[in-house]
Each structure stands twice: as structure tokens, then as C-alpha cells.
Specification:
The complex is a heterodimer of chains A (80) and B (324). With 80 residues, chain A is low in regular secondary structure. Chain A contains 2 helices and 1 strand, in the order αβα. Chain B has 324 residues and is α+β, with helices and mostly antiparallel strands. In chain B, the strands form 5 sheets. Chain B has a 5-stranded antiparallel sheet. Chain B has a 4-stranded parallel sheet with strand order 2-1-6-7. The chains are: A little secondary structure (80), B alpha+beta (324).
Chain lengths: 80, 324
Amino acid sequence: MTKTEEKEVPYLFNKATVEQLPLHFRFMKRQQITAVEEMYSGFRFSRSHMHRASQYITVTLYKPLSDIIITSFTETEPPQ
Amino acid sequence: MILVLSFDTFEQGTDPVIDWLIYHKADFTRITIADIVNRNQNWRVNITNGELLLNGANIADKVNVIWYRRFLFDFSLRIDPDHSQYSKLNTAVKQELKVFFNYLCKALEGKKWLPHYTAFGLDELELLKKARECGLNVPETIVTNSREELLNFYDACGSGIITKSITDESKSYFTDGDNSYFSYTHSFRREEITELEPWFFPSLFQQKVEADFELRVFYLDGEFYSTAIIIADDKREVDRKLYNSSKLTHQVVYQMPVELEAKLHHFMQQAGMNTGCLDLIKDKNGDYYFLEVNVVGQYLSQSVKCNYSLDQKIAEWLMKHDKN
């Protein structure tokens, strides 16, 4: 494990809450968001230490596509 | 036309495929929950005649293939989370969307789906049972609320037990300030069990399988792309995801035995899944154990590490079936 991955979760839920949840909640791991990245946090996989993306030397970055709906192209109008 | 149902923001499994669709000038439309809920797209779904109008055009007639990538996961109500009714409102609105989405699926049921929409609702326990019926080794599994039953199960298993969430959907990723919280598979010691209260919330427990290494297998319409995940740490924890960023983790191309592939293929067919990410363990005796399958699992890490170009293959599959 890396330095950012090791701490057990003592603080997110109190004891009374945890006792009402499935047992796996008692063994949650706390990690810094900046170490996890991706995972719905808005960070990109291509920058994620958690997914070891920094070691990928063959990956090209992806184009963000938010707010774009592409319905069709023609030969004379290549995608931008 | 290919209809892509995915996230509004970056989604690691979607965007590389979109790049290939653009490269090949494929006829596709990407739609997100935000397009339906929050944006200025004109939608009209005619329940009586099945028309699906997007900006005035009936896409129900045009769409041949539908690629589903976590479409419904990407919605949360844009109101103050501290609002006293936030949770209830969020649940209510999600339920509305769910029923609407279910209708859309049925309206498009004659199309080619990847994966088929009926596969979204299969629960993990049902799939474990089905896997065993298809001849796969599955760790002994129970759900119990009882310390006594759990101790009996622990003693019967001999090799130890683990607990994890019943479904991936409950393994919610929590954030609090700078910290995130996530449930991983936990290996139980007998002393830990004896310290539990007599009854607890029903939880899943499985026989612990001592892994030689784990396999992550991407399945696409009969083809297998297998990756062995080898963790060179004798004192490793049971959940390999804790080692994703470790230099001790190696992902290498792996060829599964033909008999195992045949069983897995049969299982996927029985489950009605034409795609999915399968997790398996090869134990110290050389036996393979099925752990789970995620119909919309992430594949990009293994794709890149093993040069499988799965994003390209998915795009080619979508284009092929758009033409057929």
C-alpha cells in the first residue's frame, strides 16, 4: 500500500450509525481525494495515481465532450 | 445510428470509444441524463405511439445500436445538499427518472444493445448462483445477521472468510472534506467475529480463496481479453484494489484455459450479458474461482496495460452492428 491508503476509517460515521449498517462499512478505508482522483470526483483517469495512469506512456488524452451532442457528419464536414 | 447513453462529464470507459467513433465518422448520438433533465434539448416521448423525438427528429427509427455506460448513475438534484428535504427529493426524482428510463428501454427493445438492458437489473447473488450452475467454481457464500451462524461458517470454511458489500452499488464512494471513504473486501479473523454483537445488519460472507493471482477479464460478444493481476507482496491485503497504485502490482496478458472460457461464455449467455468485466481468482492449487461480473465495469486500465485496445474494439462492434 502507499502512504495515502493505510488509515482505517474512524471518523465518517459514529458507532451508533455503523452498527445499523452492513458489516463492510466498519472496514472502510480513508484516502485523500487527491490520491484517489477519478471516481466521480471530476478528476481524470489520465492523471490518476490510483490507477497508475502516470505510468501509461502510450495513452493519448481524451477530448472532453460535455455539452456536445454530435448527430451526424458529412464527408465535407469532418469532426472538429 | 449508434445511441450512446453515458455520463455528462468525463467517464473513462466512454470517451476513448467516442474518439474512435469520431475518427471513423460513425453516425452516433451521445445522450446523458443532463441532456434530458437540465439542458436545452427538446425531448418528447410519445407514450402512445412510441415516438422518441429529439430536437424534432424521431430517433427511434434511426437508432440501430445502443451502448449503455452508467447512464442513470450520473444524476443528482442540483439543490442545496443541506436542504432538509434533499435526500427525499433526490430519491423521488430518481424514481421518476428510473420509470421513464425503463419505458425508454422497452421502447427500444428491438434494437441491438451493449449490454442488453435486461442485464442491468441482475443482482450479484443471483449471478453467483448462476455461475455455479454453469460449472464455475464459486467461493462458498452466505448472507447472515448472526454471530453464531458466522462462527459456524468460519469454522466450516477452514481457510478463513471475507466480507464485502452484496452489491457494488452500495459500495458508495463517500467524500468528506479532503478525504474519501470506500469499502474494500475485508478478511475476518476468528477473534474479530467473537467480538461482534450477537446480531447485526445482514451482510455477505465468503470463503476466503488464497490467491496465486487475480484475473480481470473483459468479455465482448464471445471474445475474452484476460489480464492477470500479479501482486508481488507476500503480506498483501485481500482486496487487490488497495494495490492499484503500487509498484508491486503487475498487469500482464493472460490466456485462460479453453474449458474455463467455455464455462464463462456459457455463463454470460445464461445471464443475458453480451459484455462485462469478470473478476476471477486463480488459487494456489491452480483452480479458478469466479468472484463477480460487472456489466458496465471499467476496462481501460487492463486495455492499456495489455495493449488490448478495447476502446477500439467496442467502437468497431458498435459500428458493425449499426450497419447490420
